[in-house]
Amino acid sequence: MICGLDIGSSKIKVILAKERPLELVAKKEIESEGVRRGIVIESERVANLLTTLFRQIQQETKHKVFEVFTSFNGSHLFSLPSKGLISVSRADRRISQEDVQRVIQAAQEVNLSPNKKAFDFTIQNFIVDGETRVDDPVDLEGLKLEVEILSFCGFVPYLENHKKAILKSGLEILDAIPAPLASAKAVLTERQKEIGVGVIDIGAGTTSLAIFEEQNLIHFSVLPIGSSNITNDIAIALKIDFELAERIKKEFGACFFRGKDSFFKVETEGDRHFLVSKKTLSRVIGERVNEIFSQINQELKKINKVKKLPAGIVLTGGGAKLEGIKELAKEEFQLPVKIGKILKCPDLENELEYSVAWGLVLHGLEEGEAIKKWEKRGVLEKIKNFFRIFIP
């Protein structure tokens, strides 16, 4: 069994899947508390919710979960590119596994402020004597070995809060990756990642971006704004409470409205009702979505990728279900835009709010295969894992 745990601003979601063949066993969610903008603020409250949630899963599936793959979220996360360079140690110039470990360690020697740390990284490229795009340098001949990596970094207290909440609930963490990377694993194909693509996950409290090129993750960011902001705007504009505004958004929400204005009736408690202008509602929603997309475009400018992603933009997350959001994204980004579909799980195909949780399941599957690969080569520990500082 593989378990993906997504601790979100609005909901905590869990997916349990069987490994061979890959098959959905259970999906479960619970209202989130103690989480703000994707960041665990009150670890004790979150731990209590996790205990309740996993007890329910055990009762329904007769399977007790001991270990999870999880994701860090929040605008404190950032990526940091770096390089390492070493001389090959063996006299016959054959690159050894130890050389690979040394060059990765060299690449990790970056300066961060005391309250920030790298919790993981991805290898982007090995270079042997100036030759780039080397996938596996072991046993190749060379004098110099270089590596380019992208480190995943964050604010230590927030990373620790996330870890504490899970450990207090009696679970162990097998791995933790950035939420944007998990979303990408759920909805992007290898072809899209090869030619250049961006995935935007619109959650309740955050919106994340991940950019891929030539199979590599080259940039990610998390914005402290999401679909809950849209709900807040509706509540203010219509002078109603948040819960009713959320229901209106889900049932009638659209990003733009054309033609003559019309009204729809909203039923409330006590057989009361009131009328809402479709034009007004779409204007409120469209303005906030445009603001989110504008901030995403600022991120694309940082890496010189505005209008430069051949595979375009893929939208996912619960916020991607808004009517007309695809057209609005096309207008803002001037790129092809698709609404994502969950890969390798027909039962979840259109449940985009589970992108992160399912992506964590797929990540767990990849990790298992990678460990087996290194074990076959006689390596006791997978290179990537020795650097992890937050896994118990």
Draw up the topology in text.
Layout: E1 2-7, E2 11-18, E3 23-31, E4 35-36, E5 39-40, H1 43-61, E6 67-72, E7 78-87, H2 97-107, E8 116-128, E9 131-134, E10 144-155, H3 156-168, E11 172-178, H4 179-187, H5 190-195, E12 197-202, E13 207-213, E14 216-223, H6 227-238, H7 242-252, E15 263-268, E16 272-277, H8 278-302, E17 313-316, H9 325-333, E18 337-339, H10 355-376
Parallel strand pairs: 1-6, 6-11, 12-17, 17-18
Antiparallel strand pairs: 1-2, 2-3, 4-5, 7-10, 8-9, 8-10, 12-13, 13-14, 15-16
Note down, in words, how this protein is organized:
The chain is of the alpha+beta class. Among the domains are: 78-156, 2-Layer Sandwich (Dna Ligase, domain 1); 227-289, ATPase, nucleotide binding domain (Nucleotidyltransferase, domain 5, 2-Layer Sandwich), CATH 3.30.420. Helices cover 35% and strands 30% of the residues. It is built from 10 helices and 18 strands. The chain has a 5-stranded mixed beta sheet with strand order 3-2-1-6-11, sandwiched between helices. A 5-stranded mixed beta sheet has the order 14-13-12-17-18, sandwiched between helices. Strands 7-10-8-9 form a 4-stranded antiparallel beta sheet. Helix 4 (179-187) crosses helix 10, helix 6 (227-238) packs antiparallel against helix 8 (278-302) and helix 8 runs parallel beside helix 9 (325-333). It is globular, with a radius of gyration of 23 Å.
